[in-house]
Amino acid sequence: MSSRRKFIKTASLFAGGSISLLNSAFTKGETIDFEKATNDDELFAMVRKQLLIPDKLIYLNTGSLGPSPLEIIDGMHAITRQLESNPVGENWGSLGNQMELVRKKVADFIHADADEIVLTRNTTEGLNLIAQSLQLNKGDEIITTTLEHGGCEVGLDFLVKTKGAILKKIELPLPGNSVMEIVEAIKKEITPKTKLLMLSHVNTITGMLMPFAEIAKITRPNGIYLIADGAQAPGLVNVNVKALGVDAYSASGHKWLMGPKETGFLFIRKEFQELVQPVFTFSGLTAYSASSGTRNVSTIIGLGLALDFHNRIGTDKIQQRTLQLRNYCLAELKKLKGLKIISPESSDLSTGMVSFSLDTVKNSEIFNKMKERDIIVKLLTQHNAIRISCHMFVSKKGY
Ligand SMILES: Cc1ncc(COP(=O)(O)O)c(C=O)c1O
Q1: Cβ 354 vs Cβ 330: under 8 Å
Q2: Nearest atom in ligand 1 to 254's CA
């Protein structure tokens, strides 16, 4: 094919296809003025309009990956263009400075200090940085649960293999019933050899909110490190690392914060920084350092935009809305036969996710039927279960 014909073919593909859709979307991506909303339903409908998810699709899988609003997509696009206009000048100049400010934004968001924040690529990376550099000895005990995500488990397996640590996985009740029950289940596994507790802040299988502050009352006085896998928390529930009493907290920007993909952050408490020294932060915790090497300024600044977006709505409002939606789903699910709710019902353990396991039907069958109806949920293979994530943009009206 001649290069002219090739060009015409490619151009016509672009004209009718998804690229033109994307271009028209870019024109809509200005900052949303939430002040214009006369009530909360209107406000959350404005958020929904900012998503590239087609109107007919009911997206209930933010727990796996959240959709970014147009203002964030466009913001990143603009940053990329600025970067490419003068790569070195921007990367180590204006954009480099903006990237560094994101650490402060993250710190404010989770009630930490900027010099306790490392900008990572995701939760898994943050937890791995801790696991790689934590000084444990042979026979030291680690406590976790049987309901953790692989991104957390891999670092614990590493500690078992390389340090000879002993890993104890607690089986928590499904569903969890009360804070006391959870705390007691953990407390009774702690021995004088226990050195580390690694738990999810919001559980990936059940959406259960782990009562960290209560657990920290046991770990901190006994010199036991408490580390949170926060992948499912920021953007869904309020995160205050000081109140939670954690030594380290690792989270992602691409789930409930609806931020750019491959963004995350790791909080390392000041006093804990002497005990964990990964090479990645050896020359400082700054976004760019000799040990971090060159970063993706567009995505990192995009994480800052995602935080701005959330702050304009407010975590309390989002938490309230997601809980309302989840309670509605829960009530509807309870009317159905053949399934068991595995998420907690008590309000102090609940978040905007609800999961159910199936008695006789295979979960993939239900998953596929939902997909046929344009409803996207998460398949929990090991538990023959399904997880529903109710982020603020979901509506009872069915979008
Ligand atoms: C509790 C938990 N931890 C870790 C991860 C891994 O997250 P990431 O891929 O962003 O590192 C997930 C992802 O679903 C999760 O739910």
Answers
A1: yes
A2: 10
Instruction: Extract the tokens encoding 248.
Output: 């380290």
**Pocket test residue of 120, 149, 387 for ligand 1, highest count of atoms within 8 A of CB:** 149
**Per-residue DSSP letter, 251:** E
Question: Are residues 302 and 260 in contact, defined by beta-carbon separation less than 8 angstroms?
Answer: yes
- pLDDT at residue 269 tops 90: yes
- Structure confidence by residue, pLDDT tens digits, 304-360: 999 999 999 999 999 999 999 999 999 999 999 999 999 999 999 999 999 999 999
Ligand 1 and 201: CB distance under 6 A: no
Q: Domain extents for the chain?
A: 87-310
pTM reported for the whole predicted model: 0.92
How many Å apart are CA 347 and CA 345, to the nearest integer?
6
Residue 346: both structure tokens together:
């008590």
Average of per-residue pLDDT across 10-39: 54
pLDDT band at residue 21 under the 50/70/90 scheme: very low
Pocket lining: 204 vs ligand 1, CB cutoff 6 Å = yes
Amino acid at 5: R
Rounded to whole angstroms, the Cα distance separating 202 from 252 reads 12
Give the pLDDT confidence of 159-169 residue by residue, as tens digits.
Answer: 999 999 999 99
pLDDT at 17 over 90: no
Give the separation between CA 104 and CA 98, rounded to whole angstroms: 10
CATH architecture for residues 87-310: 3-Layer(aba) Sandwich (3.40)
Q: Which amino acid is at 333?
A: L
Strand pairing class (353-358; 385-389):
antiparallel
- Assess contact for 390 and 61: CB atoms under 8 A: no
